[in-house]
Amino acid sequence: MLAPTSAADAGKRLRAARERLCLSIREVEDLSRDISLKMNAPDFFISRTWLGALEAGKLKLNIYRLQSLSLIYRLGLDEILSFFGVDIRDAGTEQKLVGLPHTYLLTPTLGGAKSSLVAPLELREKVDFGNTNLVSRMFESWGEIPVTLLQHMDWRNSLYGYIGIEDRTLYPMLRPGSFVQIDSQQTKVETDGWHDEFERPIYFVELRDNLYVCSWCEVNGSQLMLLPSAQSGKQSRHVRYPGDADILGRVTAVTMRIAEMRGL
Question: What's the CATH fold of domain 133-255?
């Protein structure tokens, strides 16, 4: 848990967040009014008087108004709450303090706009981030799913893969550490129909022993050719198909970093 902070200190930090965006208290009031109307919930409305008192450290929290501040200031709700000494990132470990009497289903949920994954040591020990893998397989033996990482994923209609940090098969189009969305309905290798390497279909392939590769593909009789990019420095591979390889689907979207953050 974060050390508790005073209402005055939290108010100062909220005021600094508002001023960083050059917003007046009246503008925050107007923006929150729009939110409350769209939500059809008056509790989301923030009056100038209320916000002024909050910034002065004279008021207790109202979760609906804090959500409005989160949307207006472009801060995650977890970050807003941390100003007041509440760290929701500890929720995964703190849930162990409560023993629920009934069986329940864990499902991915939507997190804050800027929520970040804080993985416990147990995850880093059990998940191999060096190799390409299916996201669902990466965490299947782990007791608690890191739902913050899995937000906005369409689990009913798509598979998701992770490109290992040591996998440069399709570099630079797919950089190591990327996440890819996979359409499991598209498992037949297309032989033409594209104009260049950027349009060429990319497939996510499962090999023997739960190994995975994300690459361009060609089928030649009973052989599946896994083709890397020219920049990768890797050689093409031939595997028996379908005996030693299974095409899980075509990659339809990718999320990846294109530059390293300074100071990391």
Answer: Umud Fragment, subunit A (2.10.109)
